Structures are given as C-alpha cells and as structure tokens.
Amino acid sequence: MSQASSPTVLVAGSANLDFVVRAPRIPAPGETVLGGGFRTYPGGKGANQAVACARAGGVRTRMLVAMGQDAHAVPLLGSLQAAGVETELLKRDGAATGVAFVCLSEDGENAITVAPGANMTLSAADLPSLDGVACLLLQLESPLEAVTAWARRARAAGVKVVLNAAPACRLPEELLDAVDVLVVNEGELAAVAGIADPGRALAALAVPMVVVTLGGAGAVARRRDGRRWMQPAYDVVPVDTTGAGDTFCGALCAALARGADAGDAMREAAAAAALACTRAGAQTGVPARAEVLALVAAGRLRDGAALHARFPSPPTGSPT
C-alpha cells in the first residue's frame, strides 16, 4: 500500500525536548540525588505518539504541533521528519519550545516535569483540514479547551477520535462524548472516572472503548457492550520506560486506522511498548513494524495473573 493510499492519522499535540539524567533512584521530596549520565532526546506525548504511529507502518501520519523560534525546536522537527511524520508546524514568536526534565532510575522507572511552552499556545482554530483523515489522536499536553474542540469537530466529521488522557484530570462530558477510544493508565483511569477501584472505574466510563495500560502487567480493553480483551505484557528486560505508553498509543491508533480488530491492535501495541522499554529515549526507542510483528509471533508473554487480579473476569454469562 502506497503512502498516498494509506489511511491517514492526524496527531494534534505536544513536542518537548527531553533533558534526561540517570540516577540510582528517583529523589524523594526535598532530597538531592547525585546522578550519572546526561543526554537530550526528542519527546513530548504528541510527538512520541506520532513517531510511533508512523513507524507502526501502513498509515500516513500527520501532526499539528507548535514550537518556539529556538534551537530546541531543531532536533524535535528532525526526529518527526526522519520518522516520516508530515508536520503542520506552527512557529510561535515569544514562546519557548516545550521541554521536559526526566530523572531515570537504574530500574528503568522515571519521574518527569514538563515546561510546555509553545504547546500551550495551540487553539481550536489551529486544527487543519480533516479531509481524508481516518483517525485523530489527542493527548492532554495541549489546552483542554482546544482538545475538546478538536474532538468535537472530528466527531462531527465522522473521524475516529482516540484520546490518551495524560496528564490525568477530570474531563468535561462534552469531550468524553466525542471520544471513540480512551487510553489511560491505572492512575489516569481513577482520575478520569473519579473512582479508585479499577474494575468499577472501567465499567463506569460511557466511552465506546476504554483501554487501560498497566506497565509490566499488560493492558485491558473494554468495549461499551461489555466485551473485554486482556493483553499480558511481553517479557522483556526494561532499560528505559520513558515513552512506552506513548508508543503503545501510537501503535494502537495505527492498527485501528488500518482496520485491525481490538485484539490484534492490543497485541501490536503491547509488543511495540515492550520493545520501546528496551532502548533509551522516548522516540529513539520506538521500534519498526517488522520488530513488533516478530515479537508478537514469538509470543513471549508474561504471566497474566497480575492483570486478572486488577480486573477480575465478569460474572458467568457476561461478554468477555
């Protein structure tokens, strides 16, 4: 399938330059920890997901993104273009390109602080034409008013809306009503639903499909008719988990845009996220489609006990 004839995914969201310091552990509040290596990597949830979508193959990927007139924009734009993402770039005078400060621990976990800069200048009017777009992929590192307007415009145009509700917050009903697929981690699920118990929170959200990522345990998807898909994580040794969730979102959206069913989309997304954990950097760690399919074929899955413990099976006779 040529790029011109491939389904199109439009990503609207953030790009940040990540400043990453490795340390023995993530500091506690008020604590100073002596770190080790330091590097910068292209990042930002929107840009990470756009790169993951493009590398997943079989789709044309475009991105609406805002950056400042500064040196930090150069590696971000270069990374997007190298991955094959077509950018709808808005250069903002007087606003800095977004940056993120990442502390990465020896066990691969991270703590992140973001200074969004130009990302927060995006507005409802900035969304480009949706002609030919199959799927609109959104996150919450852009103004909530703009994200809501984009989702409603896409819904009115018959475009599938995928929202990664991160960073977590309670969402207005008008945004949730325009979402076809909501992707959250366990903490984000509780924040969006306003319910601490994950099983109850998953059932409470009136979105056509909700996907919950659970790190090393895997992921679960629930369709509004009650059908569920339980996807254990692939067994890898993590090096850097930064961007793994974004890789999951981009790969999932690409698969859905290609017409994959939920089960196949979940498998590809979980495999892509697992491979991303084995490499440093949010975008530099995103795998190519051939690597993802090889891991899926190998079937090296972790035990699903932790996944089923968080989301027990529905009563007998209910859809699964």
Model description:
With 320 residues, the chain is an alpha/beta fold. It has one domain: Ribokinase (UDP-N-acetylmuramoyl-L-alanine:D-glutamate ligase, 3-Layer(aba) Sandwich), CATH 3.40.1190. It is 31% helix and 25% strand. It has ten helices and 13 strands. The strands form two sheets. Strands 5-4-1-8-9-10-11-12-13 form a nine-stranded mixed beta sheet, sandwiched between helices. It starts with 7 loop residues before the first strand and ends in a 10-residue tail after the last helix. Homodimer. One of its GO terms (molecular function) is ribokinase activity. Its cofactor is Mg(2+). Pathway: Carbohydrate metabolism; D-ribose degradation; D-ribose 5-phosphate from beta-D-ribopyranose: step 2/2. Its EC number is 2.7.1.15.
Name of the CATH class: Alpha Beta
Low-confidence stretches: 315-320
Q: Tell me the domain tally.
A: 1
The CATH topology is what? UDP-N-acetylmuramoyl-L-alanine:D-glutamate ligase
- Give the topology string: H per helix, E per strand: EEEHEHEEEEHEHEHHEEEHHHH
Give helix % range.
25-40%
Beta-strand proportion: 25-35%
Report how far the terminal alpha carbons are from each other: 34 Å
CATH superfamily: Ribokinase
Main sheet makeup: 9 strands, mixed
Total E-strand runs: 13
